[in-house]
Amino acid sequence: MVLILILYRQMDRNSRTLKLLRDYSEKLKKDLSAFVEEQEKAVKDYGVSLNVERDSARELMKHLQLTEETLAEKASARRRACGPVSSSTMPTRKAPESKLMP
Fold first, then answer.
1. CA dist., res. 94 & res. 80, Å (int)
2. Which among 79, 82, 87, 102 has most CB atoms closer than 10 A?
3. Phi then psi for 84, rounded to 5 degrees?
4. Using CA atoms, how far apart are residues 35 and 29, in angstroms rounded to an integer?
5. How far apart are CA 81 and CA 52, in angstroms?
6. What does the alpha-carbon distance between residue 26 and residue 3 come to, in Å, rounded to a whole number?
7. Model confidence over 72-93: pLDDT tens digits?
């Protein structure tokens, strides 16, 4: 009888340890699941943000190219209207005299 009681106690102790391990592993699974879901949401949010920034950059690039083309057209129209500019007709600036040297 005592032997049966000792064996039962030993099995019960092992069973409690296994139950504690099982409970702890379940808790870890839940925590890991919550962490993974949180990280997935963050990655999706970053993806959306990146798409918005990319689209904004495309629009800005289109606007810059259009502005560059417009300025190039205006410059060529001005050159045609004014004729070529030679260096002899351009005004020259005289360098300022230094007051340090006598």
1. 30
2. 79
3. -70, 145
4. 10
5. 43
6. 34
7. 999 998 988 886 655 555 556 6
